[in-house]
Design brief:
nine-stranded antiparallel sheet, 1 helix, Jelly Rolls, Lipocalin, mainly beta
């Protein structure tokens, strides 16, 4: 029986070092893989967006969940191949008269693992009555890095496509076919006239309107009139909202007229008073947006990091319609003309 050869100590040390290096790499590589921007698809088909990034010695994040604004999250942790994101919100307990009896803080959690190139996760939201949690499944696809700003002077546009004939809703359809429509044509104007809100009763939601055709990159020109206090929006490719809002006289904000909703703040306030006709000249090329409001450039070829609230989907490379928001208030549009980019 032969005697096993003794492995020199320096080789044993080298083997241990290589093994430890492999373990370290296995532990860090999955964690780093969570960094970046993610296009989310939420159970039921709603769109979302998540960014996870390193800042010095910590990890932080921002999220868009279905509608509303892009918001920072309370915390982000990455450990043992699992991403955990927490969001915190305050809830007021009121009596029948509306008096606040109690304020509570609820924490919802999103956890996810990577399966191939797809984030697969679950949102866990505590029920307000304290009986447990509601679970929502979601997936995420990493968004490729943004390209350099396009040279708009070199971009070629095709022949103008009138989107509204001034006489009918031809070429348009309801985004939500099962919802009540408040859209009609009035004296050559595409008008949305939802029912007035009745105090003490919930708002009656009415449908959004979208083009039947879908587009890639383009220039879109239109005129819009928004009544006092009202709100609408023009969605580019069905996913980026250019805000339409009575914000005359307000401080600059990413929720004002002409903004890319909650993402890009206008550089100058160029809106007119409520009820006046205003012009929007919008260019979308290579995930960059330019917005000219009433002849003034308020967003100059700025990058679009992801979709906005109310997006039809989160895929920034998919062709999509122009859709007009009709579930927030009265608004009128006219002279909508689109020129597609010719490649």
């Amino acid at each position: 029986m032969s005697t096993p050869r003794r492995i020199p100590s320096f080789l044993r040390g080298l083997a241990v070092a290589v093994l430890m290096l492999g373990v370290a790499r296995a532990a860090t590589t999955p964690n780093d893989a969570f960094l970046g921007r993610w296009a989310l698809t939420i159970q039921g088909g709603a769109a979302g967006w998540l960014e996870v990034k390193k800042e010095k010695s910590w990890i932080e994040g921002s999220i868009l969940w279905r509608g509303g604004s892009v918001l920072p999250v309370a915390s982000v942790t990455v450990a043992d191949g699992t991403l955990t994101v927490t969001r915190v919100r305050d809830v007021e307990r009121k009596d029948a008269a509306g008096k606040v009896l109690l304020k509570q803080t609820f924490t919802e959690t999103l956890t996810a693992q990577l399966e191939g190139d797809t984030l697969k996760g679950v949102q866990s939201v505590p029920r307000l009555n304290g009986t447990g949690f509601d679970k929502v499944e979601w997936t995420g696809k990493k968004i490729p890095a943004l390209p350099a700003r396009p040279n708009l002077a070199a971009v070629k546009f095709g022949e103008p496509i009138p989107l509204f004939d001034g006489k009918s809703l031809a070429g348009w359809t309801l985004k939500e076919p099962d919802m009540k429509s408040a859209w009609s044509v009035e004296n050559g104007v595409l008008a949305n006239r939802p029912p007035a809100h009745v105090a003490g009763q919930p708002n009656v939601r009415t449908a959004n309107l979208r083009t039947e055709r879908e587009f890639e990159d383009f220039n879109l020109k239109l005129e819009v009139s928004v009544p006092a206090g009202s709100n609408s929006g023009v969605y580019l490719r069905g996913i980026y909202e250019v805000q339409v809002f009575d914000s005359f006289g307000k401080a600059l904000d990413s929720h004002n007229m002409g903004a890319i909703y909650s993402r890009i703040t206008p550089s100058v306030a160029a809106e007119k008073p409520a009820g006046e006709w205003q012009t929007l000249d919008i260019t979308l090329v290579d995930r960059h947006a330019t917005v000219v409001l009433n002849g003034q450039t308020i967003i100059d070829n700025q990058p679009l990091a992801g979709c906005t609230g109310g997006a039809m989907w989160s895929d920034q490379f998919r062709p999509g319609p122009i859709y007009l928001q009709g579930d927030h208030g009265a608004v009128s549009y006219r002279n909508l003309t689109l020129r597609p980019v010719v490649k």
